[in-house]
Amino acid sequence: YRSKARGRGTSTIFTNEMVESHKRKLSIANSIDQALANNEFTLYYQPKVARDGELVGFEALMRWQHPDFGLVMPGEFIPIAEQSGKISSLTRWAIERACIDLPLLQSVFFNKFRVAINLSGHDLRHSGMFDLIHQIFTQQQVNPEYIEFEVTESAYLENFAFANKFFRRLSNMGCAISLDDFGTGYSSLSYLTQITIDTLKIDRQFVRELNTSHRSRLVTGSIIDLAKRLSLTVCAEGIEELSQWDYLLNHGCDHVQGYLFSQPLPLEDVALLPARFEFGPDHVSRLSGQ
Ligand code: C2E
Ligand code: MG
Ligand code: MG
Ligand code: MG
């Protein structure tokens, strides 16, 4: 029948792939605790850049140096950690690590900027999370004003009641809150009148389409307008080309992140970054002309 018609080889390869991917998932889920104990996780830092090119902060992004699989990216292991109930230990680790790295990052640039840490939806429902964060700040003697938390639009909205309360408490303590991947999650904007955030992060998808789609340019411009009207800071992600930054600058975008400036870097390489990014006399004059 079908399987015969398709041929034995084809169906065997397909099955093997599925088995391998399932094995890898299981192996990743089962080795998270061990990996934490063995120091296999690290934080990479990607600079956030202001309108004048000045470095204004960093986003901490997790990486896993796995003994068998090599460098494993968060896009793969974060969802597995969420499904297997391990995410809060990873979050705890990331917050601790970022708090330890913060004074180093600040001393490199003689600057008191913020470090942003990503939270997952599960963290918002975890009843002890606020106390845990507070405890880490106290232990590491970190001023909460130097810490920003990023949460995706969908994670915020799926946990709306918890999230509002949780972020209000963090905000009262001095932390900044960013809504990540904005524009990809929900169609209704009514929630924007009720949430506690400081920054709206425009998803990379919009930035990617700036070059090719007039509509994407209009939508992106409108998102920036909307954020400004709500007195929020706007940060755009995934800037890879100067033309994209130009468009965003002309429409009032405050902060940008992307490979144009730098990929996320291990802590030891952060010192190689310039304190201010410049892209030739053209760019400088365009900025001062505004
Ligand atoms: P995100 O928070 O939206 O982070 C932005 C992602 O875009 C990062 O991928 C970053 O490396 C990538 N990126 C930045 N600039 C560019 C660019 O110009 N071009 C392209 N193509 N990509 C760019 P990364 O590090 O693989 O992280 C993926 C996602 O994993 C993050 O998306 C975040 O949702 C999640 N994540 C990372 N670290 C953590 C963490 O410590 N905790 C939690 N809960 N989630 C994390
Ligand atoms: Mg983020
Ligand atoms: Mg994002
Ligand atoms: Mg994203």
TrEMBL record:
GO terms under cellular component: membrane
Coiled-coil boundaries: none
Gene Ontology molecular-function annotations: cyclic-guanylate-specific phosphodiesterase activity
Example GO biological process: signal transduction
Superkingdom field: Bacteria
UniProt keyword list: Membrane, Transmembrane, Transmembrane helix
Keyword Metal-binding part of the UniProt annotation: no
Domain EAL: residue ranges: 25-278
Designated name of the protein: EAL domain-containing protein
Organism: Salinimonas sediminis
